[in-house]
Amino acid sequence: MSIRISQIDKRYGQTRALEPIDLDIHDGELIGLLGPSGSGKTTLLRIVAGLEQADGGSIHFGDRDVTRVHVRDRRIGFVFQHYALFRHMTVFDNVAFGLTAMPRSRRPSSGEIRSRVMQLLEMVRLQDFARRFPAQLSGGQQQRVSLARALALKPDVLLLDEPFGALDAKVRQELRRWLRHLHEELHFTSLFVTHDQEEALELSDRVVVMSNGRVEQIATPDTLYRHPANQFVFEFLGDVNRLEGDVEAEVLTCGDARVAVPGVENGRQELLLRPHEIRLGEQPDACAHLPVSVTAVVPVGAEVRLELEADWLGEPWLATISHAEFERLDVKRGKRLFAQPSRLHRFDTPRPQTLAPLATS
Amino acid sequence: MIRIGDAPRVRRLLIGTALTLTALFLLLPLVAIFAQALMSGIDVYWQNLSSVYTLSAIGLTLLVAAITVPVNLVFGVFLAWLVTRFDFPGRRLLQTLIDIPFAVSPVVAGLVYLLLYGRNGWLGGWLDAHDIQIMFAWPGIVLVTLFVTCPFVARELIPLMQTQGSREEEAAVTLGASGWTIFRRVTLPNIRHALLYGVILTNARAVGEFGAVSVVAGAIRGQTNTLPLQVEQLYQDYNTVGAFTSASLLALLALLTLAAKAALEWRAARRETAT
Amino acid sequence: MIAQALMRRRERRVLPGFGLSLGISLTFVSLVLLLPLTSLVGQLSQLSWSQYWFLITDPRLLASYAVTLFGAGVAALFNAAFGLLMAWVLVRYEFPGKRLVDALMDLPFALPTAVAGITLATLYSSNGWIGRLLEPWGISVSYTWIGIALAMAFTSIPFVVRTVQPVLEDLPAEVDEAAMTLGASDGHAFRRVILPYLWPALVTGTGLAFVRSLGEFGAVIFIAGGKPYETEITSLMVFVKLQEYDYAGASAVASIVLATSLALLLAINLWQGRFIKRLHGGRG
Predict the structure, then answer these.
(1) Which residue of A105, B264, C68, C207 has the smallest Cβ count within 10 Å?
(2) Do B117 and B143 meet the contact criterion of CB atoms below 8 Å apart?
(3) Measured between CA atoms, how close is B263 to chain C, in angstroms?
(4) Contact C179/A101, CB-based, under 8 Å?
């Protein structure tokens, strides 16, 4: 079932929670709403669910206009951040709730309900826990029950509000992968909210990045990462280092640091780069003379994170290098090195621009 | 936000029913007290109010409150400190014991005191021999009132002090503070409101106790009549206006109690939203 | 002796004042609570079992048990419904005068019972404001069980409201929302989801209201009139026996009142404990 959101807006008193928003979600798509807290992503999700009333605009599920339809008649499945399981009901009763709440005329027989619930529990791999109470389950298990409960009524769309936000990192990883599989198998249309960029990029077919009640960019994870629409999106999708200085004749100078910036006009400029876009060497090269000293070394997983400081830097830079590189350079705290940006990004121009100072070397 | 029972029809029906029932069961009796008291005009009201018997009843009632409230305040604070700051065998039992006055019918409370201090009671003979009158005199009234009101302060303090825990006090100990200083500077500011609320409740009950007091008072007019007993006596004498005159004083005190409680809660709520 | 055993563990206590507060608390509890209560035991111990049995099964007394239990039962049920309604309305809706209504809920605790008693008796007497309206319908409240239940209900109004209210306030919005997203109607969601959350508080509040009603004296006697076998409540029987200087009889009845109240209070506490344990991860 496709979802068409047009010109949806929302105010709380004087503050505007959502600017008029348009969004088309295709049948079977998995869409992530990504943004910092207060960006309006949860408000948008709740408006789609019918838990909040929009001030203007319309929402269609397929051809059905649901703008004025009460949440209980929208045929959505909703998964809450803190699961919102009914704590006085067993797992079985929780999952069966939607079916038993149907008016008598449409309600399936108790045998049918029973087999449907067991089938759902099998799907979320909790068939042995049917008679437990929610308090006897782990967080991850509770969230799976919550998902089974939401799917019991075969909803047109599945909406998830920070579904993995309350879980610890390892369980979150597992559940994400599992949800992705489930989605591929059952092919429901779903919309989920998250503030975790990794989660959004890993799960979504397309990501909607939001801030201050506005949509900043709608794109596939790949496009989003490679071609961010603006500085906000760029900064929100990962760690960012800043380089600010005066440009003259395509060279940026800042204290005793210099770097070639082909195609950049003269004047004060701000450039950005990601930690993995920094290379380190014992010597400066023709394009860059950026002396730094290492102030912290953190080996995490496949790479080593370094904190770099210099007189010409406002705030320290973060760089990630491979272990091989780390050993080759014999990096220690206090070691003086030269940074060589492999890429630099500019967002103060009408169109975002990416420069590659090392392309010539 | 949309919640269950939000539909205007449901909302109107429930609010309407609630307000009607409240008006009928709570507001109407309150109005009736003052209406009955003023039935024969304000002059008669004043006359009744300034009668010797009413004045002496007011005096005795105030005396009872003036003794029981401070005593129960001190006891309540010590008990709350004891059961929330220390763990010892019998702690639960002690907490259960002080709930007894809540559960016991006030008449039974009066009876047990009568059995103890009355003429045929355990201590009655000894008291008689030393010419000490407790039953059917004001000391008896004070004692049963102490019994009836002893849980109020502690009941307000214990849940609060339990949730607050003793971390702040422990910090004060490490800073070298003495017991009294800890209580005054650390504990008291945190429990101020609950303490005041406990005092207000104790006072309301101390002033208004009827069942227990009526057993031990003997109701000698002008000597052992508290206001509630005065209310009963005048009512039995078919002096309705007189009875409701004294009742109106007690009702006024009840309204003050409610106002004080509402003010305390309002301030607490405001402080909570401010932080 | 117990105190000594307690004091030996003193070194381990960080906070000061254990000895003092234990001393004051034990002294107060012994003198004000335990000593008088043991005098009741003492009085009863002078009776033989058959005497005791004879006293507590007096037909007039048996009738008073029935009247008291029935009145308190009706009052508690009324309060369960009324208290639930008031708690719901006060927590979930906004309307003018809400704070006043909220404050008024505590009136029965603040108003002396004797005052409540004469007021209700006057209001519902055959020429009172309400009694007058009911009379043409053949309903008399004064001197009947209805009056007793009414007075008991009045004095125990705050119990249910004030136990349910905080639980309802703490009920997360997601509970409502989860039920609605699963298609449940208002009625179904209330019965199957919200009510079970409120159930422990509702039962506790109703139980406390019942216990309080069993012991109520001042508010009831005026409207009940105290006709033997018909409108005599058990507390009044204690009082009547005392006025006849029948201390043994009064003590026997009092022991029944006391034991019933304490047993009920204990039962409420135990039940509450078990219920809460289940919701927080005990064996289902």
Answers:
(1) A105
(2) yes
(3) 10
(4) yes
